Structure formats: C-alpha cells, structure tokens
Amino acid sequence: xxxxxxxxxxxxxxxxxxxxxxxxxxxxxxxxxxxxxxxxxxxxxxxxxxxxxxxxxxxxxxxx
Length: 64
Fold this sequence. Notes:
About 30% of the residues lie in helices and about 15% in strands. It is α+β, with helices and mostly antiparallel strands. It has one domain: Factor Xa Inhibitor (Irregular). It is elongated and about 45 Å long.
C-alpha cells in the first residue's frame, strides 16, 4: 500500500517519534479571535493516531 502523500506533508515527526501538526482553524476568520487564541494557533500540537489509521495513511511507519 502506498503512503498518502497529502497526509504526510501536514505531519512533522520529531526525533523522539512524536507527530506534530498545525492547529486546525487558522486559515481565515481569525481577526475576531482573541490574541491568546491566535498565538495558540501558531503553535504545533501532537497528533495521536490509532494503529488502524496509521496503517492506512502511513504504512511505512511500522504500524501493524
């Protein structure tokens, strides 16, 4: 099975193996959000995937 390339371009893997992604909802309509909300959206968050999803989208990651 091939890796889903559009999915992998949104993920960054750290040295320890954690997967980091951008926070959702930061493309538009952010002007009325509070400053703390906007600054929180600039940070990355960890992505927790089940083994089934990881096997479907990231088959080369060693998921069974």
